[in-house]
């Protein structure tokens, strides 16, 4: 069994990005600049955005963190988005989700200039991705593809089963893996809460992607021997033996499933760091204006 070490691969790719940035600077140009908008004090969002800001420092990007209280109005947030759209010094930006209930996430996402939408969440980028046109690819699916590619895991002709159909993970990853492309050509089965006999589906997977947000949901009897397991879940569960009183677990019962797997991602240190690194790649693309609309 191989542990697919997203943390180590992230470090490798971030070193590659750092070299690209050094070349940009050597030419006398300014480094890429990412901005992140963080609303409220959700501890998970704080941790994720903190990792994004730290990664910017590691790769030599400029970063700006725009922090606003939970009480911000939708109009105020839309005005911040407009300022970032108009700021020529900002190459790309993200608005960390989830947003408070009184703010319409769809409206905010639509307000982002697609050329600066390094999350790839704007419908224009999503649609272009679905049609195989150049687009910012959403960070978590892109991170998963990189993890497979750089570990020499073939997707062509493989049966991929995805559990979970969210707009930011399951749905785009299914589209990307079934494309006619280097990390595509898979036969994809999308499963979800209404799937009949889920275990019968997951047991057919050569590559199983768990993205449902339920701790330890995938048990050993749901996978076949030799499966490649990609665990996208990040769930905080109580653990009295830890100083913090909690620990992170994925959507997969790692200890039970790992012995049957050919390869498996850990949580933490698997897909999470790859999400952050994919965002760095998108920001580099934004600086270079690589994607033409
Ligand atoms: N706009 N909202 C926007 N863009 C995104 O790309 C995200 N996402 C998801 C939530 N909301 C978003 C993230 O940033 C999930 N996500 C994310 C980013 C980083 C990590 C996990 C999820 C991460 O760094 N995970 C670490 C552990 C972090 C911790 O200690 O809590 C890991 O090793 O998995």
Report on this model:
The chain is 39% helix and 17% strand. The protein has 293 residues and is of the alpha/beta class. The chain folds into two domains: 28-112, Leucine Dehydrogenase, chain A, domain 1 (Rossmann fold); 139-272, Rossmann fold, CATH 3.40.50.720. The strands form three sheets. A six-stranded parallel sheet has the order 1-11-8-7-5-6. Strand 5, helix 7 and strand 6 form a beta-alpha-beta unit. Helix 1 runs parallel beside helix 10 (271-287), helix 6 (139-150) packs across helix 7 and helix 6 packs across helix 10. The longest helix has 21 residues, at 6-26. The N and C termini lie far apart (43 Å). The model has no long low-confidence stretch (mean pLDDT 98). Bound molecules: ligand L34. The site of ligand L34 has 19 residues, from helix 2, strand 4 and helix 10. Ligand L34 binds at residues 44, 47-48, 51, 94-97, 119, 139, 234, 248, 267-269, 272-273, 275-276.
Q: Give the CA-CA distance, first to last residue.
A: 43 Å
CATH class descriptor name of the largest domain: Alpha Beta
Count of the separate structural domains: 2
Name the CATH superfamily classification of the largest domain: NAD(P)-binding Rossmann-like Domain
What's the helical proportion of residues?
25-40%
What fold name stands as the CATH topology of the largest domain? Rossmann fold
Strand line-up in the sheet with most strands:
1-11-8-7-5-6
Average pLDDT, to the nearest integer?
A: 98
SS content category = alpha/beta
DSSP strand tally: 11
Count, helices: 10
> What is the annotated CATH architecture of the largest domain?
3-Layer(aba) Sandwich
* Main beta-sheet annotation: 6 strands, parallel
> SSE order, as H and E?
EHEHEHEHHHEHEHEEEEHEH
Proportion in β-strands? 15-25%
The shape, in one word, is globular
Bound molecules: ligand L34
Radius of gyration: 19 Å
Low-confidence segments, given as residue ranges, are: none
């Amino acid at each position: 069994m191989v542990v697919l070490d997203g943390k180590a691969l992230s470090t490798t790719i971030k070193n590659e990005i750092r070299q690209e940035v050094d070349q940009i600077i050597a030419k006398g140009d300014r480094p890429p600049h990412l901005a992140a908008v963080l609303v409220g004090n959700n501890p998970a969002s704080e941790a994720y955005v903190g990792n994004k800001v730290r990664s910017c420092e590691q790769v030599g990007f400029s970063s700006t963190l725009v922090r606003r209280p939970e009480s911000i109005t939708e109009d105020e947030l839309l005005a911040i988005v407009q300022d970032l759209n108009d700021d020529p010094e900002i190459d790309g930006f993200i608005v960390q989700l989830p947003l408070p209930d009184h703010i319409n996430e769809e409206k905010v996402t639509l307000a982002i200039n697609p050329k600066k939408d390094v999350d790839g969440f704007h419908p224009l980028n999503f649609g272009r991705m679905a049609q195989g046109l150049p687009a910012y690819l959403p960070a978590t699916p892109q991170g998963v593809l990189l993890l497979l590619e750089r570990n020499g895991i073939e997707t062509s002709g493989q049966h991929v089963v995805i559990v979970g159909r969210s707009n930011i993970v399951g749905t785009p990853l299914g589209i990307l893996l079934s494309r006619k492309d280097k990390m595509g050509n898979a036969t994809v089965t999308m499963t979800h809460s209404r799937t009949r006999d889920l275990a019968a589906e997951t047991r057919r997977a050569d590559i199983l992607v768990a993205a449902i947000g339920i701790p330890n949901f995938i048990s050993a009897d749901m996978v076949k021997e030799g499966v490649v397991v990609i665990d996208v879940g990040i769930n905080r569960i109580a653990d009295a033996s830890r100083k913090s009183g909690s620990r992170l677990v994925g959507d997969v019962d790692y200890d039970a499933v790992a012995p049957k797997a050919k390869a498996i991602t850990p949580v933490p240190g698997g897909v999470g760091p790859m999400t952050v690194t994919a965002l760095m790649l998108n920001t580099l693309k934004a600086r270079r204006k690589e994607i033409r609309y």
